[in-house]
Design brief:
single chain; mainly alpha; 11 helices; 56% helix
Length: 250
Amino acid sequence: MQWKTHLSESTSKEIFLRGYSLSDLIEKFNFLQSIFLFLKGEFPSIKEEEMLNALFVAALDHGMAPPSTQAARLIASGGSSFNVAVAGGILAFGEYHGGAIEGCAKLLFSGVKENKTAQEIVKHYIADKKNIPGFGHKLYKDEDPRSRALIKKAKKLGFHKTFLPLALEIGDEFLTQKGKVLPINIDGTMAAIILEMGFPWQLAKGFFIIARTVGLVAHVGEEIINEHPFRRLSDEEIEYLGEKGKILKV
């Protein structure tokens, strides 16, 4: 069976990414431009590069509380190698941590393709008693500050034409139908902007992985360099709910 790809080729003399010599990319282009090229097959415009940079900065880290960061640092504290600890953190990404970006991108793409209004979309989710991916946050009840900054940047650079307006309308419509604020979070904002930039919705989660992996590398490095090995929960953090005092009958 042949493996086929449009992405890269490695020969005994040169490496090519999307048809471009890696040596030329190293000499003439930066990391962001090369990421854009590799993901989309073309170099970014100045505005696209600035927007991509903002997306990666926004998703770089969110403190030590998220499951991925805790997982990576705990694994590192057990003496595992650097790559195992970072991989463990990435494996903690799921439906409730980083996964909503893909769900929201698919929702917005389908909504635009099928000509659905924000009113119809919200009504459907409310009727099915399902959470709208990319909306709401445990900490940010009224507004996600990362979303605010990204939306401002997207409007300034012109990435506010189809998908981002629909996403913002969904938030407004939820308030109308339910009487409660459901702010668009970073996942939803990134999803909308990624679509505005012409990327397929199937790649959406990848943008979060690219950015947050850098954060995980930093946390694992700090754990290994600065902390003592073998973290464990204290007795105060554990509540035993089982029975006590059982007698074993032989």
